[in-house]
Design a protein that fits this description.
- The complex is a heterodimer of chains A (682) and B (147).
- Chain A has 682 residues and is of the alpha+beta class.
- Chain A has five domains: 130 residues, HPT domain (Four Helix Bundle (Hemerythrin (Met), subunit A)); 135 residues, no CATH class; 60 residues; 177 residues, Histidine kinase-like ATPase, C-terminal domain (Heat Shock Protein 90); 152 residues, CheA-289, Domain 4 (OB fold (Dihydrolipoamide Acetyltransferase, E2P), Beta Barrel).
- In chain A, 43% of the residues lie in helices and 23% in strands.
- Chain A has 22 helices and 24 strands.
- With 147 residues, chain B is mainly β.
- Chain B is built from three helices and ten strands; from the N terminus they run βββββαβββαββα.
- Chain B has a five-stranded mixed β-sheet with strand order 8-1-2-10-9. A five-stranded mixed β-sheet of chain B has the order 3-6-7-5-4.
- In chain B, a hairpin with a 2-residue loop joins strand 1 and strand 2.
- Classes of the chains: A alpha+beta (682), B mainly beta (147).
- Chains A and B meet through helix 12, strand 23, strand 24 and helix 22 of A and strand 4, strand 5 and strand 7 of B.
Chain lengths: 682, 147
């Protein structure tokens, strides 16, 4: 141990890593269960499970948490046997293994809460021991393939079984040779990218690094053999693998029968080095810190630019210096983009726990359900991901609990007994992510919702959603264990619409199901923003919140009567707003608010101004400002101190002049104004 | 026990702040105003890459604000997790004042300043008022807004 060793740091690291392995273990157990339901063996998930438990055991031993070591060891033993049996787990084992995972989870949570870790349950340990005996009797045989023996020797029984099963199911197996070269590396083609691209088209059974004779084609003397199972033609694969067709060789089944006797090596380093290296876990605070430091650097760069300008004005030859400064500016922008990318997490990872949630709900409600998740390669800023996840969980809960019918109901409706919940997302071109949570259940009974809300039958899906999102509304008369009562859609709406400034919409069809769609910004830390001047000061507003920017000819603004009282409880500088102003826009009257009035800034005098049009609850309204400055990517820092936490200000940014510029939330500013007008203020 | 204090001026009066609470002193040429914040909030400044709210001690002490001068300073203070700047007319000296030199302020003064002055000390010719940061920077709580 290093002299600076801190037990507390070590435990925190253990907890973070243990959670990751537990999540993976849960996901793999569900995969095993799903495959077992179809009578298939699952060599890869079993192997990964084994690895997770093996690692957990090692980690727990390092921090000296014996109960976790004991459970992990018992589970690992079962899984090792299952792996030797080519991924076949005895019946009932998934349930028991899930229990084991939960026991470990409890231990980790206790550790995190600085509580004593409960001892391992002797019943669990002995049940796991029993499983092992059953599993031990089942190690079977497996068919052989045309793989050369030296390659076959590198496959575990599980991998051989995976290959054989793939071939038996009619897929083609290929050996693909990939030769890394400096030219390829320069073009961004390396074993990692090839692996990624091939895995999009085919199932990779194993990647085997080999040393070969140094030649023109293999200048590094290194080659990788990818063993893959594919349904499609080899041409597409050849492109993905950057390998000419002659580097492909087919693998076929052979009639001979071989005993599966290979043992999992405890440290299967080749796979680990190829598949798992190159990742580092970073606390988000450290990235924020890096971003802060970078902002300071941007300010310095701006000052440097100013210093160069004054030199130029003084007649100095600053051409070269000017070039260096502008190159420096570009590099800073690139660096900022790189940090932003580092903050992104994959949506697939975010949704890892969803299948487990559905499984739990499905059991609690006795409604068989399966889940389909399709996320592609979408990514989200970590801060957004953390905020949106509870909303997704609510929607998934509702889908199983309220959306899906009981099996009898589904049979009667002529639907498959197992209900479907699907979560899908795709990235839109406007830096937004669209996420849908759908079920194939009974649809929402608008009449029942209206009755419970004591409101008239809504005419549109938007109207129905509005009712559903009323705090405290539940469409179920009884309190259910899973959904509770009165929580749900209002929380979803608050997170997606109020906190993240996204959108929430819904479609539902009686007897066919319901689909909720969330549209949220990919990042709330770094965003595209318009900058503009109002009342002599500069502000920015996120592009995603703006519907339109248009000319505002004050001669064309229509003024209605104004009988409102001045809002109370605001600073003295705020004067009465002229909120009865409006303009015509595509045949619709849009209210116009003078932003400088709302912000207590000096009134504008120009006859022609700009109007920034935003939407509030579906209705457009416009803010009059002096002039627009431009559009750029900005880093938003939230305003945390209570002294400066005010409605309508989302945070600050630095436009490069070393001063904070306010990031306005115009919709919230409008909301506050309208709320102030409607009845007694809250 | 001698303790370091930063001496600053607000209008014609001398105040001291325990140096242990002051992270740094910065010159001040204006702040970004925050609409809707309390009147004593001068605004936001960016100091070494971080955004800090600034309280104008003049306004807080019931005086009209002034245009910043070359002497204007922001004392960047730390209170728990929060970092808040205090805008003063000038701040030039650091003094060693022992705790026993401070006397409680006369009760009239204590009342009129809402406890923001927690002690006074006579040092040479000057009467120095010790600022109570816990009173100057109120506990973090949601400000009522948006109504």
């Amino acid at each position: 141990m290093t002299p600076g060793f801190e037990a507390a740091d070590f435990i925190a690291g253990f907890i973070a890593e243990a959670e990751e392995h537990l999540t993976a273990a849960n996901a793999n157990l569900l995969a095993v269960e799903a495959a077992a339901a179809k009578g298939q063996a699952t060599p890869r998930p079993v192997r990964e499970l084994f690895r997770s438990l093996h690692t957990l055991k090692g980690l727990a031993a390092m921090v000296g948490v014996d109960p976790i070591v004991e459970v992990a060891h018992a589970m690992e033993t079962v899984l090792r046997d299952a792996d030797r049996a080519a991924g076949t787990l005895p019946a009932g084992s998934v349930e028991l293994l899930l229990k084991g995972v939960r026991a470990i989870e409890r231990g980790v949570r206790a550790l995190a809460g600085k509580r004593p870790v409960p001892g391992a349950s002797p019943a669990l340990i002995s049940a796991l021991g029993d499983l092992r005996q059953i599993a031990g009797e089942r190690a079977g045989t497996t068919a052989g393939t045309s793989l050369p023996p030296e390659l076959a020797a590198k496959l575990s029984a599980a991998e051989r079984q995976q290959l054989v099963q793939g071939l038996e199911s009619g897929r083609l197996a290929w050996r693909i040779l990939f030769l890394p070269t400096p030219e390829r590396a320069a073009a961004g083609v390396n074993i990692t990218t090839v692996r990624e691209r091939v895995s999009a088209l085919a199932e990779i059974v194993k990647v085997v690094p080999q040393s070969v004779a140094v030649s023109e084609r293999a200048p590094g003397g290194l080659a990788f053999e990818l063993l893959v199972l594919a349904a499609g033609p080899k041409e597409a694969l050849a492109e993905a693998a950057s390998a000419p067709p002659e580097d492909f060789s087919p693998v076929v089944l052979e009639a001979s029968v071989a005993r599966a006797g290979a043992v999992i090596p405890d440290d299967d380093l080749t796979e680990d080095q190829l598949g798992r290296s190159g990742f580092v876990r970073v606390e988000i605070k450290r990235l924020d810190d890096a971003l802060d430091k970078l902002s300071a650097l941007v300010v310095t760069q701006f000052r440097l630019g100013r210093a160069v300008s004054s030199l130029r004005q003084a007649g100095a030859d600053v051409r070269e210096l000017g070039q260096v400064v502008s190159e420096n500016g570009r590099q800073l922008r690139d660096l900022r983009a790189a940090i932003m990318r580092a903050r992104m997490v994959s949506v697939a990872e975010l949704l890892e726990r969803v299948p487990l949630i559905v499984r739990g709900l499905s059991r609690a409600t006795a409604k068989p359900a399966r889940v389909e998740i399709s996320t592609g390669h979408a990514e989200l800023d970590k801060a957004v991901a953390e905020r949106i996840f509870p909303a997704i969980v609510h929607l998934v809960r509702n889908a199983v609990d309220h959306g899906l019918e009981a099996p009898e109901g589904r049979r009667a409706a002529g639907k498959p007994e197992v209900g479907l919940v699907s979560v899908a997302c795709h990235e839109r071109s406007d830096n937004q992510l669209e996420l849908t949570v759908s079920d194939d259940g009974r649809g929402i009974d608008a009449e029942a919702v209206a009755r419970r809300a004591g409101a008239a039958l809504p005419a549109t899906p938007e109207g129905l959603l509005e009712l559903l999102a009323r705090p405290g509304l539940s469409t179920r008369a009884e309190v259910t264990e899973t959904s509770g009562r009165g929580v749900g859609m209002d929380v979803v709406k608050r997170i997606a619409v109020d906190e993240l400034r996204g959108e929430l919409s819904m479609v539902t069809a009686s007897g066919q199901g319901t689909s909720f769609r969330l549209r949220i910004p990919l990042s709330i830390t770094i965003i595209e923003a318009f900058s503009f001047v109002c009342g002599g000061e500069t502000f920015v507003v996120p592009v995603s919140t703006v519907e339109e920017i248009r000319e505002l000819d004050l001669g064309k603004v229509v003024r209605g009567p104004d009988r409102r009282k001045r809002p109370r409880g605001q600073p003295d500088r705020r004067r009465a707003q002229r909120a009865a102003d409006m303009i015509g826009r595509r045949g619709q009257a849009v209210p116009v608010l003078q932003l400088e009035d709302l912000l207590g800034l000096p009134a504008a005098t120009a006859a022609v101004r700009k109007a920034i049009v935003v939407r509030r609850g579906g209705e457009p309204f416009a803010f009059a400002v002096d002039r627009m400055l431009g559009q750029q990517e900005i880093v938003v820092r939230p305003l945390e101190d209570a002294l400066v936490k005010v409605t309508g200000v989302a945070g600050t940014t630095d436009l490069g002049d070393g001063r904070p510029t306010l990031v306005l939330d115009l919709a919230a500013l409008g909301d506050a104004l309208f709320a102030a007008e409607g009845g007694p203020s809250s | 026990m001698n303790e370091l204090h930063v001496l600053c001026r607000v209008a014609e009066s001398n105040y001291v702040v325990a140096a242990a609470d002051v992270l740094q002193m910065e010159s001040f040429s204006g702040a970004t105003r925050v609409p809707g914040a309390a009147t004593e909030v001068a605004g936001l400044v960016q100091i070494r890459g971080r955004v800090v709210p600034v309280l104008d001690l003049r306004v807080l002490f019931g005086l009209p604000p002034i245009t910043p001068t070359l002497d204007s300073r922001v004392l960047v203070t730390r209170r728990g997790e929060r970092t808040v700047g205090l805008l003063v007319d000038s701040a030039r000296e650091v003094l060693k004042i022992s705790e026993s030199d401070f006397q409680p302020p006369p009760s009239v003064v204590a009342q009129q300043t809402d406890g923001m002055v927690k002690g006074v000390a006579q040092v040479g010719e000057r009467l120095l008022m010790l600022v109570d940061l816990t009173k100057v920077i109120p506990e973090a709580q949601e400000q009522s807004h948006g109504q």
